[in-house]
Design brief:
Number of helices: 5
Largest sheet: 6 strands, mixed
Strand order of the largest sheet: 3-2-1-9-10-11
Enzyme class: hydrolase
CATH architecture: 4-Layer Sandwich
CATH superfamily: Metallo-dependent phosphatases
Oligomer: single chain
InterPro entries: Ap4A_hydrolase, Calcineurin-like_PHP_lpxH, Metallo-depent_PP-like, Pesterase_MJ0912, Phosphodiesterase_MJ0936/Vps29
Cofactor: a divalent metal cation
Number of domains: 1
Protein name: Phosphoesterase
Radius of gyration: 16 Å
Pfam family, one: Metallophos_2
Strand content: 25-35%
């Protein structure tokens, strides 16, 4: 199974369409979105519509939560339109975490980290709180977003994979998507600029 990964779209509809095209060209069987679909860009409603049209499995990110709050409070940020009611209802319906078993691999989807941990997972760093949380999980693979940094790292028997950000307008954005092949947990990351594979650092988190 070739599982397509997207995250941190940040209301960039053009980049989302580009990512979906690349993943289709690369033979993705299914696509999941790891949160932060909206905010920072102008096309949040179109992004949500496209994710729904493609029946993409999604989890809610911190910016998705913020956009829902802003909608209900009428809090309009400069140069950012408020989301429509349909998009808000979709975001509100999403779980912050989901788990599956695909090809015999136990997979957890989250945005920042599982178990409500709000500290980012980096190749060189696994939050101490998350180490404790993982003792109660039966997971082989955790799929994450949030950092905008593509990653494949391992802690004990659990792999952590981040496709980076679909968004590409800011300096910290990676403008990438990824495919993880199951059950091998082989990861390929692709640039949205030219569709080519990009180097993926692989590191063991610090103990």
């Amino acid at each position: 199974m070739r599982l397509g990964l997207i995250s941190d779209i940040h209301a960039d509809h053009r980049a989302l369409l580009r990512a979906l095209d690349i993943l289709a060209e690369r033979g993705a069987d299914k696509v999941v979105c790891l949160g932060d679909m909206v905010e920072k860009g102008l096309d949040g409603d179109r992004v949500v519509d496209t994710l729904r049209e493609h029946a993409i499995v999604c989890v809610r990110g911190n910016h998705d939560d913020n956009a829902v709050r802003r909608h209900h409070e009428g809090d309009r940020a400069a140069n950012e339109p408020l989301l429509g009611a349909d998009a808000v209802a979709f975001l509100e319906s999403l779980a912050g975490e989901r788990d599956y078993c695909w090809e015999g691999v136990r997979v957890v989807l989250s945005h920042i980290a599982p178990g409500g941990v709000d500290e980012p997972v980096l190749p060189e760093l696994l939050p101490k709180r998350l180490k404790r949380v993982l003792r109660g999980y039966e997971a082989d693979l955790v799929l994450l977003g949030h950092t905008h940094r593509p990653m494949k790292a391992r802690h004990g028997d659990v792999w952590f994979v981040n496709p980076g950000s679909v968004a590409g307008s800011r300096l910290r954005d990676s403008h990438t998507c990824a495919i993880v092949e199951l059950p091998a947990i082989a990861v390929e990351v692709f640039s949205l600029h030219d569709g080519r594979p990009v180097a993926l650092p692989s590191a063991e988190p610090a103990p």
